[in-house]
Fold this protein.
Amino acid sequence: MEVVVTGRHCELSDRFRSHVDEKLGKLEKHDHRIIRVNVEVECERNPRQADRAVRLQLTALSKGPVIRAEAMAADKMAALDLALDKMAAQMRRASDRRRVHRGRRTPVSVGQALADTADATGATDEQVTTHERRVGPIDVAGDGPLVVREKTHTASPMTLDQALYEMELVGHDFYLFVDKENDRPSVVYRRHGYDYGVISLDLETS
């Protein structure tokens, strides 16, 4: 990894440059693809800006996206440490995203798995038995919808105000009820802020 250190309005000692090389060498454990890191140090001449007298920017060039980090402090060493911490955090997040992406695989469907098994054993399509199951009120052959839980509740028709009270009581963001005024299945739900919304079904008679 190559390290290029440049300064503006300030002199950079050999000791500081060696310190930069030593510090930046630790970045390779987060991203071994780093080719070069540019270090730009700019000193503020205004004495009123003593707490941010040094502005330091790191730019890491690698086979992946360019990563930049910037920090301001009272001296060069402190600014370097702050910028280095920011860059290391970015590289760790990027490494975690790459690890998740590489570990992601498209799940194999039941049909494909059965087809692969049939091909491996020399069985024909007619010899493959499709598994049938019942999901709620639906008979499913092979792949189909996954119902995690099915619930049925007994309830009496109620007013909108009572439905709002029940929703707040259970602590949910919505509440299903039968409107007492028109016998329509309805859902009251919480919107952003303190507003509420109501969705009703107008049942068609055959």
